[in-house]
Design a protein that fits this description.
Two copies of one chain form a homodimer. Chain A has seven helices and two strands, in the order αααββαααα. Chain A is mainly alpha-helical. The structure holds a DNA duplex.
Chain lengths: ~160, ~160
DNA sequence: GAGTTTTAAGAGTATTTTGTCTTAATTTAA
DNA sequence: TTAAATTAAGACAAAATACTCTTAAAACTC
């Protein structure tokens, strides 16, 4: 698996926040229910994003979490790096410590190119463009629910 | 981590076998000692490669394991797929089941392109070219040892 | 055929990842 | 000022991954 579960949850949550119409706090409980993610686990993931400054949280009623910057200013690499770290983008494909141009493994050059391709894609994709696309085309952000349903329904809705 | 430890061990072992001068059986014990991999663990990994037909094994003295095809006919994708499976190359970056052109997530297109890039690199890299490169430039195949040392020393060597 | 060398197979252990539960601290609002 | 709502933090549990150990089966050598 390329990204850890926590990282995937972090990306989905970030995308959800970026697709909100207003920029107020959204409670983690709501995110966890709408995205079908374990509440307590998500809490810990999002703490990593607040500790790195990508999000800010607020306690109490009307509290929750929100992006510190506009979705258009946050790229996916920032989120991945905050949760999974940058090892994926620095490590050797054959697992050799310290693999690099100075002491390469036979696969180093090719892998470095591919690795940079992943990084480039993540760095050049921001939350806003994904949220826009998701809303316009009502794409999925959870197993069964698209953006449309997600943004127009309360959790408590019986429907 | 992109590849599991087992997969990395499988790749290193395959590369080691492809770099042998003769095509006889090499004992798993020798591979495990030279590549510094746990013997019993490696045994299980290589069993996956023999069960998929990429390698063949032989018991008893003079036994061991060897590639069924020439190193130039084995690409890295075959090895990765045999050990880690093809999920990496089919799964959604956001973890949504069944993500694809029909029911995409907002990231699907971009991720599919990147994913195919990884696959393309693996499919278009064969063991022989890596072994050749490794031997010519005496690159590393283990943390401290290069190809040269590896191929010219017996395990029992006191040196 | 007996003994040795090797892979095969399975049970068991350790570590990491993933997820759960409880309590504390903070904030709002009645 | 009390109660409710929320995040923060830490202990705990489950599952997956990584690794170890023991025994069995096969093949070679004498």
């Amino acid at each position: 698996m390329l990204l850890s579960k926590g990282c995937i949850y972090g990306l989905r949550s970030s995308l959800f926040l970026a697709s909100q119409e207003n920029d107020g706090y959204v409670s983690i409980r709501e995110i966890s229910e709408k995205l079908d993610i374990s509440f307590h686990f998500l809490t810990k993931i999002l703490q990593q994003l607040t500790s790195t400054g990508l999000m800010e949280s607020h306690k109490g009623p009307k509290g929750g979490i929100r992006l510190t910057k506009s979705g258009s200013e946050v790229n996916l690499f920032e989120i991945v790096a905050a949760i999974d770290g940058v090892e994926l983008f620095t490590e050797c494909a054959l697992g050799l410590p310290g693999c690099g141009v100075k002491k390469p493994c036979p696969l180093h050059e090719k892998w470095a190119g591919t690795r940079d391709g992943i990084r480039y894609m993540l760095e050049n994709t921001n939350l806003m463009e994904l949220a826009k696309k998701g809303k316009e085309q009502n794409l999925r952000i959870t197993e069964h629910g698209g953006f449309e349903w997600l943004l127009n329904n309360d959790c408590n809705d019986a429907s």
